[in-house]
Amino acid sequence: MRRSVEAASSLFERYLERARRRIDTALDARLPRAREEPRPLHSAIRYSVFAGGKRLRPALCLLACESVLGSSAAAVPAAVALEMIHTFSLIHDDLPGMDDDDWRRGRPSNHIVFGEGMAILAGDALLALGFQTLAASPLGRAKDPRALIRIVTEATGTEGMIGGQAMDLLSEGKRTSLKRVLAMHARKTAMLIRGSLLLGAEIGGASPGLKRRFSNYGLRIGLAFQIGDDLLNVRSSRKKIGKAVGSDQARGKATAPGAVGVERAERESERLLREARRIAKGLGRRAAEFESLAVFLGKRTS
Amino acid sequence: MRRSVEAASSLFERYLERARRRIDTALDARLPRAREEPRPLHSAIRYSVFAGGKRLRPALCLLACESVLGSSAAAVPAAVALEMIHTFSLIHDDLPGMDDDDWRRGRPSNHIVFGEGMAILAGDALLALGFQTLAASPLGRAKDPRALIRIVTEATGTEGMIGGQAMDLLSEGKRTSLKRVLAMHARKTAMLIRGSLLLGAEIGGASPGLKRRFSNYGLRIGLAFQIGDDLLNVRSSRKKIGKAVGSDQARGKATAPGAVGVERAERESERLLREARRIAKGLGRRAAEFESLAVFLGKRTS
């Protein structure tokens, strides 16, 4: 059994590894050079974009496009835009006025290296550059050119990531129900994971029914991913996640294990991943990879 | 002579007053309600958007559209998006890690009222909402639906407002040439003024030649506007500009009067406005209003 779980999860891991290389090359080509003015801004942008991210969101975008269209070449710029916008959120989340994290992925946070002002601007620039990149993306089989922008702004704005981060800040130090934690995780994390799939599906020309399926799958994967992060934060060593152990608890963050304990949080994550695996079976040519991601996420915290 | 300057400048002022009311109504309809969750985020957004802004950028967008098309109704959502993005920049510029201004337009800055974290997020949300609003804007006579996004991201990103603010931060406390100050003002201020005109012109279906003319006019107006702000900061009372007198000097900001003295800065502004008035004559049906704006900006600091 263990062996088949390994095999199932490694299918997605192999895809992720291949996608990472494509994305990193495209990101490098698309970002302003560090030697162009204003240099510290461009260095700050590149520091956080090339900080060892897994490129999960771009990979999901490529995978969804491939699953529908058979090829993901048209989705590469859109995938790059997603990573820019994801990196914007990481830089801003770490700021002293927000989560005040000095470390990210085992390295000093952006504002520690470049100062608070430059970190704020690097985040702002990545958000703008993400939309600029999307507006120059090939359309593939997308019918409405502005649908791409709409998918990503919905996932990013007050009903998505930014609204979720506000809920996160506001819940600090308060007792929070699992329902409210999940509503926050949905906006803060799941909306952009879902948006990444929808973006790839849109470029691939997916039917409305298939898009709904991607949406349902993405929300579950996204929620399970964030609950997994909560669980890792409770358990892992600094080495593994690159920041202080139990930092969520120390800051009174609203988390799934904080709301209902580790065991019930694990059960919630397992339930979501079970549903995701079931939905994954109908996700087109890359169904096996989507199933594999659900297995992979389950393994990550078990 | 004085009387004719009054009459010429008031033509634009009257347009601005009418545009302000249209824009405020459309902004109110488009922004998330303060009673919807997360409430503090939405309150922070509305606090800064409705802080008595002149709505110069939206008015320029409407005016450019009207000048080409004869009507500006199609440009209202795009104009609203510009004000959202402008307000994002004001909120972030005031943050302690940036210009550290406790006051804006005679009221406490966003972060003073809502805290740093919520102010960062309110700015982020306005930037995302600006692009969301643009992606839902009517196209008018624009041929490429994504041209609207491209015009605004160019004006906002590392080659526009955000890059300019980075140059501004980096120049603090350093001796700076007029050339460098103008390069910074061009990105920080003039690019979005120009972008506002280009956006309206695009929706109005302007010819390439007319768009170039709007671009040339916008850069000059934008530079003169920012030099005017520099001059006001040196001279005016706190009451008039809503922040401490001479705050630029106290912070060692790079400004035009700081680089070459008040008199040469005034001459530079007059030169730019003279050129703008000349270009304005060829800007279509609303040429008189565009000329009037140049007169208005000259009057502001004289």
UniProtKB/TrEMBL annotation, chains A, B:
Record SUPFAM superfamilies: Terpenoid synthases (SSF48576)
Cofactor(s) required for function per UniProt: Mg(2+)
GO cellular component: cytoplasm
Biological processes per GO annotation: terpenoid biosynthetic process
Gene3D superfamilies for this protein: Farnesyl Diphosphate Synthase (1.10.600.10)
Keywords: Isoprene biosynthesis, Magnesium, Metal-binding, Transferase
GO molecular function, one term: prenyltransferase activity
PROSITE patterns: POLYPRENYL_SYNTHASE_1, POLYPRENYL_SYNTHASE_2
Record CDD domains: Trans_IPPS_HT
Family of this protein: Belongs to the FPP/GGPP synthase family.
Cross-referenced PANTHER family: FARNESYL DIPHOSPHATE SYNTHASE (PTHR43281)
Designated name of the protein: Polyprenyl synthetase family protein
Organism: Eiseniibacteriota bacterium
